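Researcher: We plan to redesign the surface later, but first we want a full-length starting point. Tokens attached.
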């Protein structure tokens, strides 16, 4: 049952993290897709798809271009409409499918005979489509529909708009199948041309206009319906073209135009009929007549591009936004970063190719931004989970480890720690735990040998059945008891809590500790000299552990001092508020290697006959008590004397700053 409970808890936590990341990803994708804040990114993806999706050059559509050569041969623009009449007669004699003219004839010319000649040529051909322009009288002024002049409109086979829609960045990517002032009544020039040629697919035809506007104010508004994006067969110049002048002078074979759709329009730079397009890149913009040719080809081939409905766009964006959560919880960070990057690249590429493959357009900016945020958001949640785990470990360490072994921050301090600091605290605690483990193993090894030996000897005598000699049994039992008592004192010293310490008077404590050794000092002929101050010295400490520490130092000095020499016990007050208690006895200088290990566990001195009779815990106990009080312990050798000292903070000194 505990295993199932922990597994259910894990699943709940995992699901909670996924939901916490999914919600902001959904919000990003839906808000960007619905608001259009990154429309330029959408346009960039669409333009990339146009560059990756070149189509075969058409062989049934031809442009008669009013180019620089034509202007050089025929003179400056505008030309007489009689010249356009002669061109039409030349073209129609070659039996083209349709002739669409991308030249506005919205006003009568100064040559009435030329207008009449053009009308006659249009009527005689019977397959000419003329343009209608929607323009304003001035900047911000009223919009007007400007059809061809009445004599030309009356004989034209069809009239269609030549305008295209410019997006926010000024690029031509889309058209409206129906448009007009007050009512969307006018079809495109390309649609009328294809209808007249009999090549208009039913799917490309626009619906009839929505009728007149409801109010007089609305009758002056531009009404647009059925917006579609269109494709480009290639960069400017991809649609085949011939020079206007060369056709007019008869240098082109008649069969060149037979059965083809012919568009007549300006391509010379000086005439200004140019539009920036997705395929223009750094080259010059595309002539308006070639833009009309690309619209016509898209309609003819059924490749007009429809945008997904708004609801479908938002639902798809929301679905694609959370796809990275399928792999991010299962992958390591580097693999998750690579997978998320590939996902963003795949979404962008798919959306770029989608118009050319399915003639559908899905704006991917919201999904791309969500994909870019997926890895950082999931990494943030992972770091938060790691932080919570580290905080929990720090709280457990604070509860389980002695604070003198590792300075573990309080819960309030933990919340202010940086991530690297948390890791450093845990690593420090781990090192301390390994050290404590090593000490435990060392203690067990010691117990198994030194404590087991006397007990095993006593047990052997008892099991032998012989009469027990009390004098032989008691020393071994006392030795075992002494070692057990030393371990008990040491455990208490290692568990000292400075917050639980009370103010004690150190001078009287040292007097009491020294008084216990008068008989031993007389027995060894070692006078005890006290250099203790008359006034009381107060510190915050644990009375019993400090008294035991002083006793250990005095006992150690009495065991190693030569007979007839004095053992001196002193207490000094340092200028920085610390106090230093010390015990000095005569003796040769200690070897450096011995000094380095004197205060370690189970370390015994090598002086005197009784040097090996101790437990090796006396000086380690002194060091543990000193550190438990925030102080230090050490030894100095000079002038034939050995001086053991313990430095402790005074009662007016605060708790030292913790260092991780």
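Model: Full-length starting sequence:
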């Amino acid at each position: 049952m505990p295993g199932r409970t922990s597994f259910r808890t894990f699943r709940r936590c995992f699901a909670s993290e996924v939901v916490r990341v999914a919600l902001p990803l959904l919000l990003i994708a839906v808000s960007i897709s619905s608001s259009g804040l990154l429309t330029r990114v959408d346009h960039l993806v669409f333009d990339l798809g146009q560059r990756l999706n070149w189509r075969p050059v058409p062989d049934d559509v031809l442009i008669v271009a009013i180019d620089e050569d034509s202007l050089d041969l025929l003179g400056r623009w505008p030309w007489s409409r009689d010249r356009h009449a002669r061109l039409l007669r030349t073209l129609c004699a070659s039996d083209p499918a349709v002739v669409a003219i991308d030249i506005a004839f919205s006003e009568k010319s100064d040559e009435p005979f030329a207008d009449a000649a053009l009308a006659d040529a249009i009527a005689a051909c019977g397959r000419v489509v003329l343009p209608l322009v929607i323009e304003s009288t001035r900047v911000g002024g009223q919009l007007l529909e400007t059809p061809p002049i009445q004599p030309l409109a009356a004989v034209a086979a069809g009239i269609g708009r030549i305008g295209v829609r410019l997006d926010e960045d000024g690029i031509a990517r889309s058209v409206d199948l129906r448009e007009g002032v007050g009512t969307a009544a006018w079809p495109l020039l390309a649609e009328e041309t294809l209808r007249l040629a009999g090549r208009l697919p039913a799917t490309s035809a626009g619906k009839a206009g929505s009728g007149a506007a409801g109010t007089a104010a609305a009758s002056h508004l531009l009404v647009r319906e059925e917006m579609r994006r269109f494709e480009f067969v290639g960069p400017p110049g991809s649609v085949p073209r011939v020079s206007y002048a060369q056709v007019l002078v008869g240098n082109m074979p008649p069969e060149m135009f037979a059965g083809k759709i012919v568009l007549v329009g300006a391509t010379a730079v000086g005439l200004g009929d140019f539009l920036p397009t997705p395929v223009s890149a750094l080259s010059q913009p595309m002539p308006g007549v070639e833009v009309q040719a690309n619209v016509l080809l898209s309609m003819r081939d059924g490749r007009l591009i429809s945008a997904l409905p708004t609801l479908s766009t938002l639902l798809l964006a929301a679905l694609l936004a959370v796809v990275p959560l399928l792999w991010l919880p299962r992958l390591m960070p580097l693999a998750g970063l690579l997978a998320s990057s590939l996902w963003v690249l795949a979404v962008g590429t798919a959306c770029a190719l989608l118009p050319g493959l399915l003639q559908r357009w899905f704006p991917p900016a919201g999904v791309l931004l969500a994909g870019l945020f997926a890895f950082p958001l999931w990494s943030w949640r992972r770091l938060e989970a790691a932080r919570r785990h580290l905080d929990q470990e720090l709280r457990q360490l604070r509860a389980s480890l002695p604070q003198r072994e590792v300075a573990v921050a309080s819960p309030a301090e933990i919340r202010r720690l940086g991530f690297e600091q948390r890791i450093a605290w845990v690593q420090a605690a781990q090192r301390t735990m390994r050290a404590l483990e090593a000490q435990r193993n060392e203690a067990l090894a010691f117990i198994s040998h030194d404590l087991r030996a006397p007990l095993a000897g006593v047990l052997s005598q008892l099991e032998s059945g012989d009469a027990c000699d009390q004098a032989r049994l008691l020393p071994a039992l006392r030795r075992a008891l002494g070692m057990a008592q030393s371990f008990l004192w040491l455990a208490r010293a290692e568990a000292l809590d400075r917050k639980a310490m009370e103010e004690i008077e150190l001078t009287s404590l040292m007097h009491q500790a020294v008084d216990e050794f008068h008989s031993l000092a007389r027995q060894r002929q070692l006078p005890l000299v006290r250099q203790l101050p008359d006034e009381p010295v107060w510190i915050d400490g644990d009375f019993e552990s400090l008294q035991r520490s002083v006793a250990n130092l005095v006992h150690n000095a009495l065991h190693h001092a030569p007979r007839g020499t004095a053992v001196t016990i002193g207490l000094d007050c340092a200028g920085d508020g610390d106090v230093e208690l010390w015990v000095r006895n005569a003796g040769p200088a200690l070897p450096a290697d011995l000094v380095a290990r004197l205060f370690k566990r189970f370390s015994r001195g090598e002086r005197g006959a009784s040097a090996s009779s101790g437990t090796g815990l006396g000086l380690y106990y002194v060091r543990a008590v000193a550190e438990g009080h925030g102080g230090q312990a050490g030894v100095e050798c000079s002038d034939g004397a050995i001086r053991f000292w313990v430095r402790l903070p005074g009662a007016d000194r605060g708790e030292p700053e913790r260092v991780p």
